Amino acid sequence: MRPGMERRPDAGSAVVTGVVGIAVLLALFVGALNLVVDEYAKGAVRTAVDEAAQAGATGGGSVIDCEGKAAQVRANLLPGPFGRGVMVYCGLEGNEMVAEAVGNLPSLVPPVPSWHISVTGSSVVEDMPSQ
After folding, report:
1. CB 88 within 8 Å of CB 69
2. From CA 86, how far away is CA 104, in angstroms rounded?
3. pLDDT number for residue 84
4. Would you write out the chain's pLDDT as a tens digit for each of its 131 residues?
5. Model-level pTM?
6. Please, which residues bridge with residue 120 across strands?
7. CB under 8 Å to 49, separation ≥6 — which residues?
């Protein structure tokens, strides 16, 4: 070592602080990204149940039309693992077609827990016009 260039006891502590800071920022970023993806998925599920209930109500109260539309919208808006974790059930309740989606939205990283979702949509069944 050159004269006057003595090793200080805190040498390298800035690197440790920087690494810890970057790890915290990365965890916050991944958490925020997971929240954004979950909010998109909730909106997509809301759209699926609303469109499904309306399709079933327009068909004169057809549960088959309701479930078919729910599957179609869910497949288009939530492909992959997000759509597989959510199931949509349709049924008639009085004069309303009700579509209910329940399931879990997976997280992007293992430490973040999955989100449970439960969304209900309904539409009044339209009477078929008589000819």
Report:
1. no
2. 6
3. 85
4. 566 666 666 666 778 888 999 999 998 898 888 888 889 989 999 999 999 999 999 877 789 999 999 999 988 998 887 788 899 999 999 889 999 999 998 887 777 788 899 999 999 987 765 55
5. 0.76
6. 100
7. 70, 88, 99, 100, 101, 119, 120, 121
Q: What's at 55, amino acid-wise?
A: A
Q: How far apart, in whole angstroms, are the C-alpha atoms of residue 79 and residue 85?
A: 11
Tokens of 6: 């003595």
| Phi then psi dihedrals of residue 121, to 5 deg | -130, 150
Beta bridge partners of 10: none
Largest CA distance in the chain: 105
> Three-class SS of residue 11?
coil
| Amino acid, res. 53 | A
The alpha carbon torsion through 75, 77, 79, 84 (nearest 10 deg) reads: -70
**Using only C-alpha atoms, what is the Rg of the chain?**
26
